[in-house]
Amino acid sequence: MQEIAMTILDIIQNSLRAQAMQIQLWIKDSIKDNMIHIEICDNGCGMSLETLQQVTNPFFTTRTTRSIGLGIPLFKESVEATGGSFQIDSRLQKGTKIIGEYVKNHIDTPPMGNLVDTMITCIQFDAKVNYCFHYQNDDWAFDMNTEDVKALLDDVPINQPEIILWLKDYIKEGMHQ
Amino acid sequence: MKSLDELKKIREQAKERMAVRGQEGQEYRVVVGMATCGIAAGARPVLNTFVQEVAKEHLPVTVMQTGCIGMCALEPIVEVFDKDNQKTTYVLIDEKKAKDIVLRHLMHGEVIDEYTVGHYSK
């Protein structure tokens, strides 16, 4: 993956496939602390201990189209290549939490990339899912909860193309303070 | 700075367009593969190009995401379903090709043969 934002999108696709209705994305990007902290937490179907132990193995997958699953192994390897840390925790019927922490100034740390597109791509997937986004760096922070947006939309689904386009500009402005 | 209140205006526009789309019916369904393979190959800008063009041109088209379609080397893959559920599979799509598909296929009903999986495997 060329961007951290693409890895995040990939991991959130796992949450969506696990029927999560509530997904939290928490990012701290700090030069001061020399780290990029990525945390994704969902209330999807979760995994058994047995599955959890295999999930960082690229030759394990639950899908049937192919016999390999690279999403989580790629994230783990990308984080660990920078000297950072990776954690995954999951409980059946409760959800899954993944934390990856990159060492920011390491030469192998990928660029953050386009977080705005990642967020709107997530929102576009299914209007029923709710997201809580939090991004902070050393100078400013941006927060968005899709429930606040939906409260203003009445019966118009949040993933209507017109709404998605507006949200894209809204998030873009929020992320360029 | 945009405020969430502005959203109310956009909501009314979206409502009107939804009503129009509802009357005319959905002409096409566009499905973009968004598994690890798709994302790594550049499916995110492809998906967002479709969303943007559909909104801009007010097209009666639904844009959807799916998982791995099974031909990872040919990602980004885009499937276009017409009203009769006839499927056209486009492979190795980028933003420019996505715009071509919107213009030629979604707006004028022309299948772009040279982007299809059939053309690629010849």
Q: How does this structure look, described?
A:
The complex is a heterodimer of chains A (177) and B (122). Chain A is an alpha+beta fold. Chain A has a single domain (4-113, 130-145), classed as Histidine kinase-like ATPase, C-terminal domain (Heat Shock Protein 90, 2-Layer Sandwich), CATH 3.30.565. Chain A is built from six helices and six strands, in the order H-E-E-H-H-E-E-H-E-E-H-H. Chain A has a six-stranded mixed beta sheet. In chain A, a hairpin with a 3-residue loop joins strand 3 (85-91) and strand 4 (95-103). The radius of gyration of chain A is 16 Å and the shape is globular. The mean pLDDT of chain A is 93. With 122 residues, chain B is α+β, with helices and mostly antiparallel strands. Chain B has a single domain, classed as Glutaredoxin, CATH 3.40.30. Helix content of chain B is 44%, strand content 17%. Chain B has a four-stranded mixed beta sheet. In chain B, a hairpin with a 4-residue loop joins strand 3 (78-82) and strand 4 (87-90). In chain B, helix 3 runs parallel beside helix 4. The longest helix of chain B is centred in the N-terminal third of the chain and has 18 residues, at 7-24. The radius of gyration of chain B is 15 Å and the shape is globular. The mean pLDDT of chain B is 91.
